[in-house]
């Protein structure tokens, strides 16, 4: 297969996260076949691709949920591949998992407090989160799973922010949500980025991905099939990279 | 009838102490400790031995055994039982079954099969009159301890950061790790607390009646029945289940001395058939 067309006209800013030839497998099934990826300081990068392209697997490698070779993932130059999830979150990489994955036995506020377990210094606190998502303050004693899909997504995002990460990984925020709710969720992104956070957004909705990010990676069957500025990629290029047809 | 009820409730208090540790370990880790009853017996014997070394006093012995059990539980989970963790329930069952055999035979080997008890200097026979009934002071104290432990556990789980960690890790271990928890250490702490309760139950059992090396499996069954009748996931449920079991057994004893335990088994069986989730299950 030909090398992925790299359409970046300007060099990416200094890398917060960099992966080199990242491979990953689930048992005998290989899911990633050598991913080279860079996330710059205070950048929002989107990863798009069809189901099974390896987007979620990639995020799981970054957070330590799926094993990876030590030197294949770097955070500010430190090799973190294969470290345990709790070691990685302490270094400032937090994930909003696919499908929310709130704790059913905990209330909204307790779910948020669980996010603060890693206790890094930073601007995010319960008060700031309630200011960002006021509905959560109203429902803070409700069980986490008794909220609507969009509200649960806010809790999941808040939970990740509570650890005051430097990198936020968002896995399919729009999953199962109505368009108006998706807009509401992504409207909160600028406030998050304004604090200096670097964000990776995994999305199946290409339009949303292009709108919220400055660069886009397209994954196809475990490989990077396209990378470039979000505003400069045409629909044909994306179609080709997405479906490989 | 009132006498039967009161005696049953007091007996249930002791069963609650047996059951709380089991409920805790299963609630946090989905781990069924087959050696649970044997560790209660072991704690009872440890109390007897420590009391003997300290010149016969029961209460200092009890206070010493509990922190030791806490540490033992922590080490056991951290270095042995954590290795059995996984989707398959079989390894933990096999390992704890092995522990049960080891504990029973070690006790038999080193201490003989004679039942032993902790001398309480008259407390175990003291009683006062409540209307027509005689209420034993020690059984009443045990009942109050059981109430206190249930309330304390409930408070621990509902209101503290440690309790949040326990609930989170039992809900979704990998997401809990994503938040920075070390699940292996959380499990170790849970087992440590469970073993402290086991030790408390063991020394109180030794004070109230006797402990013998082969008593373990029977105590495990009482604990297990209490947890199942009460419903899993709730400490108050476990307490209620234990009280129900105690009362039912006492009713059975009134008909015939050989029927007490059997009535308990019948009610347990009926619960499994009619309402397997127990009286007060916590829905997940």
Summarize the structure.
Chain A is built from 10 helices and 10 strands. With 245 residues, chain A is of the alpha/beta class. Chain A has one domain: 3-Layer(aba) Sandwich (Rossmann fold).
Write up this protein.
The complex is a heterodimer of chains A (245) and B (284). Chain A is of the alpha/beta class and 245 residues long. Chain A has a single domain, classed as P-loop containing nucleotide triphosphate hydrolases (Rossmann fold), CATH 3.40.50.300. Chain A is built from ten helices and ten strands. In chain A, the strands form two sheets. A six-stranded mixed beta sheet of chain A has the order 6-7-8-3-9-10, with helices on both faces. In chain A, strand 9 and strand 10 form a beta hairpin. Chain A starts with 14 loop residues before the first strand and ends with a helix. The model of chain A has no long low-confidence stretch (mean pLDDT 89). Chain B is mostly helical and 284 residues long. Chain B has one domain (10-213). In chain B, 73% of the residues lie in helices and 3% in strands. Chain B has eleven helices and two strands; from the N terminus they run ααααββααααααα. Chain B has helices at residues 2-29, 36-53, 58-79, 90-111, 137-159, 161-171, 173-178, 183-208, 216-230, 235-255, 260-274, and strands at 127-130, 133-136. In chain B, strands 1-2 form a two-stranded antiparallel ribbon. In chain B, a hairpin with a 2-residue loop joins strand 1 (127-130) and strand 2 (133-136). The longest helix of chain B is centred in the N-terminal third of the chain and has 28 residues, at 2-29. Chain B is globular, with a radius of gyration of 19 Å. The mean pLDDT of chain B is 90.
């Amino acid at each position: 297969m030909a090398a992925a067309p790299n359409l970046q006209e300007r060099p990416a800013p200094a890398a917060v996260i960099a992966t080199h030839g990242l491979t990953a497998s689930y048992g005998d099934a290989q899911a990633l076949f050598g991913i080279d990826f860079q996330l710059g300081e205070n950048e929002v990068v989107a990863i798009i691709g069809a189901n099974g392209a390896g987007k979620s697997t990639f995020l799981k490698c970054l957070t330590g949920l799926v094993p990876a070779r030590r030197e294949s993932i770097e955070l500010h130059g430190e090799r973190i591949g294969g470290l345990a999830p709790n070691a990685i979150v302490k270094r400032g990489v937090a994930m909003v998992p696919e499908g929310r994955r709130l704790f059913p036995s905990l209330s909204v506020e307790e779910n948020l407090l669980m996010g603060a377990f890693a206790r890094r210094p930073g601007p995010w606190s319960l008060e700031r989160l309630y200011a960002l998502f006021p509905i959560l303050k109203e429902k803070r004693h409700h069980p986490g799973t008794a909220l609507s899909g969009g509200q649960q997504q806010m809790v999941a995002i808040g939970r990740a922010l509570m650890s005051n990460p430097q990198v936020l990984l968002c896995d399919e925020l729009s999953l199962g949500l109505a368009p108006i709710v998706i807009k509401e969720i992504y409207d909160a992104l600028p406030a998050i980025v304004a604090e200096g956070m670097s964000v990776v957004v995994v999305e199946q909705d290409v339009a949303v991905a292009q709108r919220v990010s400055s660069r886009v990676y397209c994954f196809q069957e475990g490989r990077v099939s396209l990378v470039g500025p979000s505003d400069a990629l045409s629909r044909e290029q994306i179609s080709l990279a997405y479906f490989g047809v | 009838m009132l006498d039967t009820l009161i005696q049953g409730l007091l007996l249930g208090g002791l069963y609650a102490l047996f059951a709380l540790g089991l409920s805790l370990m299963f609630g946090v880790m989905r781990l069924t400790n087959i050696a649970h009853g044997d560790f209660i017996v072991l704690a009872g014997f440890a109390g007897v031995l420590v009391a003997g070394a300290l010149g016969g006093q029961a209460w200092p012995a009890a206070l010493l055994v509990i922190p030791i059990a806490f540490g033992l539980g922590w080490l056991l989970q951290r270095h042995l039982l954590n290795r059995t963790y996984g989707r398959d329930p079989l390894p933990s069952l096999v390992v704890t079954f092995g522990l049960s055999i080891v504990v029973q035979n070690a006790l038999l080997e080193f201490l003989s099969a004679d039942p032993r008890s902790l001398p309480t200097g008259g407390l175990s026979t003291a009683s006062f009159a409540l209307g027509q009934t005689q209420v034993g002071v020690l059984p009443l104290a045990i009942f109050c301890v059981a109430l206190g432990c249930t309330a304390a556990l409930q408070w621990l789980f509902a209101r503290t950061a440690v309790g949040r960690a326990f609930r989170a890790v039992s809900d979704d271990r990998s997401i809990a790790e994503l938040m920075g928890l070390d699940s292996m250490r959380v499990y170790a702490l849970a087992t440590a607390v469970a073993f402290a309760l086991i030790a408390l139950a063991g020394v109180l059992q030794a004070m109230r009646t006797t402990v013998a090396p082969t008593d373990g499996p029977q105590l495990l069954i009482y604990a297990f029945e209490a947890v199942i009748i009460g419903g899993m996931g709730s400490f108050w449920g476990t307490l209620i289940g234990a009280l129900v079991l105690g009362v039912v057994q006492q009713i059975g004893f009134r008909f015939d001395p050989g029927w007490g335990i059997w009535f308990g088994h019948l009610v347990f069986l009926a619960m499994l058939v009619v309402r397997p989730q127990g009286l007060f299950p916590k829905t997940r």
